[in-house]
TrEMBL record:
Species the sequence originates in: Pseudodonghicola flavimaris
Keyword Cytoplasm recorded: no
Family: Belongs to the class-I pyridoxal-phosphate-dependent aminotransferase family.
GO molecular function: transaminase activity
Organism lineage string: Bacteria, Pseudomonadati, Pseudomonadota, Alphaproteobacteria, Rhodobacterales
Protein's recorded name: Aminotransferase
Amino acid sequence: MSPCADTPADLGKTRDHGGGIDAAIARWGGTRADWLDLSTGINPQPYPLPDLVPEDWTALPDRAAFAALDQAARRLWQVPAAAGILAAPGASALIARIPALAPPGRVRIDAPTYNEHAAAFAAQGWQVTDRAPAEARVLVHPNNPDGRLWQAADADAPLSVIDESFCDVCPQQSLIQLAAQPGRVVLKSFGKFWGLAGLRLGFAIGRPETLAPLRDLIGPWAVSGPALRIGARALADTAWAGTTRTRLAQDARRLDALMTARGAEIAGGTDLFRLYTVDAARRWQAWLAEAHIWSRIFPYSDHYLRLGLPPAAGWARLEAAL
């Protein structure tokens, strides 16, 4: 376990997240428009919204709309033929329900990682641990916040969840083929790479019999008409995805160069967010906040500072603040 990670007893209790601009405004002033929010790993240049038709808002989504989204997702992520796809209103909605796929037991979640998984399992009576043996295991791939990549052999529990919310920046590393195996669930987030977190769209991919309880839990029409149309269009736009990956990689290296020149050390991350080790994370956060730039720190570390990528107009502000 990392020396700055939560202990197994703490997993599932602390549910800190990025965002929280309202709290930052209350302390450091300004308006939301004044702030540059780098506390999340959301693409700062989102997918351009297509035109919507009135029926997207007024009609219950039909099977054709769900099928179009399913087909686009299947092609993009190269989903195995034996696996099904369940669209939901955000990956978080699926994370909250996944513990119901098996009777409560021990779930292995290696810290530090995205804390909603441990919280969801703990809320449904599971014992959260960082050791084997366990009846369930969660792998955030690549991991948040350090970008760690897992191997297929690590999905070694009867119920294994592979959260690939940030894997669209490195699709060659995907473990999507595991979705063809019983008891394996691969999660995908739409809001991160496509930069449309407010749309609330996520996917669970696994064998139909594995996903069946989740499908029952979220019910029909779980995804809105606008989300279905926008999601299907965006997932099918491979040219945009390729160009975006190139830009994100360049911007991630630019951010690394900027931060290391100011004394920070690279601790990991992905091309959507970077993790740095600094001398005093709270001081760095306050220092940036004075310039109305919001960053991410963690309750389990005094030295971890995470930054998302600035939008094109935000680089000069960040450089000036540093």
